[in-house]
Design brief:
globular; alpha/beta; about 10% strand; 17 helices; single chain
């Protein structure tokens, strides 16, 4: 092993295409190793995502092997302690992509100082986002709090940047090992075997992400604006878990959609814009990750009713479309977006249960869980978020079912 190898810290970047930090590592080093840090406490209430993570590690390990690159998985308790010990070795350069959550961005600042003080070469690259956090601002320099003007500015800013050159990773000389006390991807799987049915619905890999995108653009994007509202129709992209775990970059989605120039493209890309908006919100207003974005709601008299909450979780409320949504979530690790709004509204506006309880349950069960989208989505429904639905707007679960599942096909399934 040479004295200076390239390490790539894998987080939510399970792809070869548009993986900027991995591309940099293979460009600058003949020997490269990829490592993933499994922090158990981070996944304490994210059982479904343990399944997706384990499967992703397995498939990405195989993808990297074609380039003579090893993937090593380590179990850790603290990022800071791990990297401080690693920096003491001083025989490597390290690369990683940004993860757009406040704690990760703070960790980036801390690690920059640690590696700089040790004279270790490091590079932090753009992660899975169109525009960097902070680039899209109002003329007065303040962050946007309303989606439409945000996305108008964000689209223009991104269009001014493209086309960007498409770089690829290079094959290294040989596979190397670097760390000790490794764990296997299977050890990450949840102990409860309820996740086994996910195999019937999902294949977590970059290959399948690109295939899903291609199929969606060819077959469904034209009618996306209408069909995305009907849960019994396969009208959405089903890309959200792949985006969350970085099996596909949002730039790839943007570029492939724009090429087609089909009806429905603009509406679909606005959903990518909503994700960008949410990531900006949680970084400019980090208090919303744990509390109401609008502090006017802090004294709202929520009901504490474990019986109703458990009935909602299990899909036993007696409201057909609400129960169907909760059962879809448990069975597939995913829920149709229209139904997410319906079950969310039912929890907070019919049962008067705190949105945080719903957010917590979704976090545990959703394969596509992301802090930004989940928190912003729940606060939108509750009426306490930025650019949220008014607090007095209530989704009537009976009328919603009659309108969007008229023949009961979704409920029956």
């Amino acid at each position: 092993m040479s004295k200076n190898i390239g390490l790539f810290w894998l987080k939510e970047d399970f792809r070869l295409k548009k993986n900027l930090a991995l591309i940099e590592a293979t460009k600058n080093h003949d020997e490269v190793l990829v490592f993933y840090l499994f922090k158990k406490s981070k996944f304490e209430r994210q059982e479904a995502q343990k399944w997706w993570l384990a499967k992703s590690l397995n498939s990405f390990k195989n993808d990297l092997a074609r380039y003579n690159i090893n993937l090593e998985i380590l179990n850790i308790n603290s990022y800071q302690i791990f990297f401080e010990k690693l920096a003491a070795k001083n025989n490597f350069s390290i690369y990683w992509n940004r993860t757009y959550e406040p704690d990760y961005l703070k960790l980036d600042q801390y690690l920059s100082k640690v590696f700089a003080n040790k004279g270790i070469k490091f590079k932090i690259c753009k992660g899975n986002i169109l525009n960097e956090i902070g680039e899209v601002k109002k003329l007065d320099g303040m962050p946007f709090k309303v989606f439409t003007p945000f996305w108008r500015s964000a689209e223009k800013l991104f269009l001014d940047k493209i086309p960007s050159s498409e770089k690829t990773i290079k094959k290294t000389k040989k596979k190397i090992s670097f760390f000790k006390n490794l764990i296997s991807e299977d050890s990450i799987l949840p102990r409860n075997k309820w996740h086994k049915k996910f195999d019937d619905y999902w294949s977590p890999s970059e290959k399948h992400a690109l295939k899903e995108l291609n199929t969606f653009i060819k077959e469904r994007i034209y009618n996306y604006g209408d069909n995305r509202n009907y849960p019994h129709i396969l009208g959405t992209s089903k890309l959200s878990p792949f985006i969350k775990h970085g099996q596909i970059h949002v730039e790839t989605i943007w570029n492939e959609c724009i090429k087609q120039k089909k009806r429905g493209t603009e509406k679909f890309l606005a959903e990518i814009g909503w994700r960008e908006f949410n990531h900006n919100l949680i970084n400019f207003f980090p208090h919303m990750l744990k509390n109401n974005y609008s502090k006017k709601f802090d004294k709202f008299p929520w009901e504490k009713n474990s019986k109703f909450l458990n009935a909602w979780k299990k899909g036993l409320t007696g409201y057909p479309i609400v129960d169907a949504g909760m059962r879809e979530l448990y069975s597939t690790g995913w829920m149709h977006n229209r139904v997410r709004m319906i079950v969310g509204s039912f929890l907070v506006k019919h049962l008067l249960i705190d949105w945080k309880e719903g957010e917590k349950h979704f976090k545990n069960c959703l394969l596509d869980y992301s802090a930004a989208n989940n928190v912003a989505g729940w606060q939108w429904v509750a009426g306490c978020g930025a650019d949220a639905a008014p607090y007095f707007r209530i989704f009537n679960p009976i009328l919603q079912g009659e309108k969007f599942d008229k023949e009961g096909k979704y409920v029956k399934k």
